[in-house]
Amino acid sequence: MTDIQAADALHMAGEIDAAADAYRRVIAADRSNFSAWYGLGGVRLRARAYGEASDALRHAVRLRPDDFGAWGLLAEVLFKLGDVERAIDAYRRVAADPSMRAVAEENLAIIMPGSASAANADVFAARRDYGRRLAAGVSPVERPERPPSGGKLRIGYVSAFFDGANWMKPVYGVINRHDRDRFEVHLVSLGGDPSAAAGYVDHAHDVIWQAGSCDDETVARRLATAGIDVLVDLNAYSAPKGLRLFLRRPAPVQLGWFNSFATSGLDCFDGIVGDDAVIPAAEEGFYTERVLRVPGTYLAFEVLYAVPDVVPPPCGSNGGRLTFGALASAYKLNDLTLGLWARILRAAPTARLLVRAPTLGDPSNRDHLRARFAALGVAHERIDFEGGAAHVDFLRSYDRIDIALDTFPYNGGTTTTEALWQGVPVLTYAGDRWVARTSASLLRAAGLAEWVARDEEDLLAKASALARDPATPARLAALRAGMRARLSASAACDTAGLCRELERIYRQTGRAAGVRP
Predict the structure, then answer these.
(1) How far apart are CA 477 and CA 482, in angstroms?
(2) Mind giving me the DSSP string for 363-432?
């Protein structure tokens, strides 16, 4: 057995650390060995050491520019590191290989909304292309005669993330408040199941479908037989395989809500739920769905699990020096975002930045991000990089942050709600697409519109003014002290109102489809 074969055998056996060492030994002896670079990139990807994986796979594609497998792994790694534009270029290269085109188009559809160089038309095109491929050969199931429901409208919610307490704050805020005298609630779980720990309040007549192990046609037939009237997708492209269920048309009305951020690109949805902030009327042409709007914010949330107490801002005890922070997923840390943050730090020379994400627990990922900031003229001494932690400890990071910085164009959703609930205002601007306006939707609903800048330059001006103003520590202290009361009294946390609006939409779309409870 050759050295490269031994390394591959360790890789196949799942011994990724030993495999990485074996690949490195091969490379030390022969830096032109494509298979060793490719193998090292693959095992470091599996270990989530994306910085090292990126270096290895770049070597691999330089050695074999036409190897689509290496380009596919590199595209995945680049996205994980926040290098979105190069990831898109790599996936487009991969799409030239017929055997990999489906995977490439799926990934382009997933990540395109977060591309700073893309426009609404590009997002629409990527999702239409993938939607056509996904729909090919998928037929609607037969819907038998609707069984009696006692005059109730049957609502089905589909999610792969019902067990995600921190992600599902808007969802459970609505589901727990449904009028069970008028609505029969079905929760179709494609992943972890609803639980009290996740925020779900059990109701005796709710139906929980454990469907993760079933194929989409089987689930669709069972939902059709159960007589679901309105089926609501809570996944969108966070779990794109679940979209096949909706292509089967098990319900007379099918809607997207919560996790959408852009069009599905599919013709099987009768509507998509947003609000005036995220989908202005002028952009409705970029949706295959009918746009349905709720007042306030479509992401009204309720915190239904233990979180740390709010503490005073750190600038109040360190001479007024601000600490900006971001607890965003690393794939949102693209060149636009880092460029804006670097400009803020250069304009506010006494300020610091705390960046925390689970992937930053790996040294190669930290080194990669540190090098990107250095290239933007920001010394590493001004930035703290930290990895993941248990969620309560992760939220305690906000004790050390005065002002949260948003990511662009892919804003925070969960991240924004968590920052606000911990008393930390989020500085953002309203961008050019849905995903670039989610924070604006939440902040305006919370009565915090002054934290929404007009554009990038206004964002920079606001940040630098806050860093220079001696009144900022007192302003932030007062804001933090009253933040939870402010939120609770605002549309940002009016989940009861959001529930009533969604119920109105369900009844209205149901009647239009001929549903008679």
Answers:
(1) 9
(2) HHHHHHHHHHHHHTT--GGGEEEE----HHHHHGGGGG-SEEEP-SSS--SHHHHHHHHTT--EEEE--S
Q: Is cis: bond before 517, omega within 30 of 0?
A: no
470, burial (CB in 10 Å: exposed 0-12, middle 13-18, buried 19+) = exposed
How many other C-beta atoms can be found within 10 angstroms of the C-beta atom of residue 210? Answer: 12
Q: Which residues contact 264 (CB under 8 A, 6 or more apart)?
A: 127, 131, 233, 236, 237, 243, 256, 272, 288, 289
Tell me the Cα Rg of the chain: 24
Residues near 466 by beta carbon (within 8 Å), at least 6 away in sequence: 322, 403, 427, 472
Pair 130, 270: CB distance under 8 Å: no
Cβ pair 234, 257 in contact under 8 A: yes
Kindly state the helix (H) or strand (E) to which residue 61 belongs, with its residue range: helix 50-63
Mean pLDDT of the region 254-263: 97
Could you tell me which of 508, 476, 434 has the C-alpha nearest to residue 120?
434
Q: How far is CA 427 from the centre of its chain?
A: 18
Q: What is the pTM of this model?
A: 0.96
Supply φ then ψ for residue 308, to 5 degrees.
-65, 160
Helices 84-94 and 68-80 pack at an angle, to 10 degrees, of: 160
The structure tokens listed for 176 are 């727990």
Tokens of 18: 């030993």
CA pair distance 380, 373, nearest whole angstrom: 8
Q: How far apart are CA 172 and CA 162, in angstroms?
A: 9
3-class DSSP state for residue 123?
helix
Strand partners, 325: 354, 404
- Coil, strand or helix: which one is 156? strand
Give phi and psi for 14, each to the nearest 5: 85, 10
CB 70 within 8 A of CB 64: yes
Residue pLDDT, tens place only, 183-234: 999 999 999 999 999 999 999 999 999 999 999 999 999 999 999 999 999 9
- Cβ burial of 449 (10 Å; 0-12, 13-18, 19+) is exposed
